[in-house]
Amino acid sequence: MELNNFPLVSIIIPIYNAESFLQDTLECAINQVYKKIELILIDDHSTDKSWSIAYKYQSLHSNIILKRNKGKGAAAARNYGFQLSKGEFIQYLDADDIISPEKIATQIDFIKQNKITKRTLIGCYWQRFSNSLDYKIGPIQPFLNKLNHSEEEWLLSRVEMPPITWLVNRALIKETDGWNESLTRNDDGDFFYRIISKTDQVVIIPKVLSFYRRHDLPSLSKSGDQAHLYSWYISALTYKNIVTEKYGIKGREASDKFFYYLYFKMLLRDENIALLCKKELYNKKACHEIGDRFVQKLSYYIGLKNAKRMRFIINRLRGLPPF
């Protein structure tokens, strides 16, 4: 591969107490088929052996930059990594996830062959895994039947896509205010709502090139702490502001679906945040799909909150997770 004719790609990896997974993640980044890359490792004040593992890799590879986070949290680490990076394209990679060796090469090749503009966002299929890639979990995602999508249809449908799936043009990131460092939950959603709102189109390459690790232990994204739940609410406000301004009635309907879902999620976790979510609904009488048909049907008779309480009791009796 003649690298002079190819763009530099910066892989930004925030690290926090990831000693159990970090080596696998660094290996998948270093062993990319696409060789014109730099790795930006930002250690977020780890207290385990993460720093020493990262330092060892830096000593062996001249294209690795290792720094300690100037702030605190993954969003701050990604922003700092972006400041240090020089790549025309950015690959965000969490310290416990894995990308295929062909991931970046496949996306760059598609960009070059199709003369993709700077305002196009390139993604790929992905799958969850546990422990190692020998233990893949659940279906291949997302469920799509076409390659190209308008930013409108993508935003309104709010497809679930981890940050690892995207290859982002630097120009798009510079049009946003970066990652919101005050958020501790759905900060990736908040960031990519703003990114996608700046795009001309979204392209999803129909190959599984990214793998998202599922943890059985409690994690930040599963935490019920009020600050984390409130961050989820704030990210939904970002979404609401974007889609209602750009798409009118369709945007209001999409916003209501999101806030109704959050209202359902918050009901037995934080009453105050649940009420905040309910206030954001344009149509407060409408009911939306929430992913639990039993609760949905029962809510028509005893109300959503009582239906969710019933689900909580049933799950406890069956020895299942509460929700």
Description:
- This protein folds into two domains: 3-220, Spore Coat Polysaccharide Biosynthesis Protein SpsA, Chain A (Alpha-Beta Complex), CATH 3.90.550; 289-323, no CATH class.
- By secondary structure, it is of the alpha/beta class.
- It has eleven helices and ten strands.
- 39% of the residues are buried.
- Helix 5 packs across helix 8, helix 8 (226-266) crosses helix 9 and helix 10 packs across helix 11.
As a percent range, the share of helical residues equals 40-55%
Task: Give the class from helix and strand content and strand pairing.
Answer: alpha/beta
For this structure, what is the CATH class of the largest domain? Alpha Beta
Number of strands: 10
Number of helices: 11
Report the biggest beta sheet as strand number plus sense, adding barrel if it closes: 5 strands, mixed
Unreliable parts: 217-223
- The tally of structural domains comes to 2
Query: Radius of gyration in whole Å, from Cα?
Result: 21 Å
Order of helices and strands: EHEHEHEEHEEEHEHHEHHHH
Strand fraction: 15-25%
CATH fold descriptor of the largest domain = Spore Coat Polysaccharide Biosynthesis Protein SpsA, Chain A
At the fourth level of CATH, the homologous superfamily of the largest domain is Spore Coat Polysaccharide Biosynthesis Protein SpsA, Chain A
Measured between the Cα atoms of the first and last residue, the distance is: 50 Å
Biggest β-sheet: strands ordered side by side in the sheet = 3-2-1-4-9
Shape: globular
User: If you average the pLDDT, what whole number results?
Assistant: 90
**CATH architecture label of the largest domain:** Alpha-Beta Complex
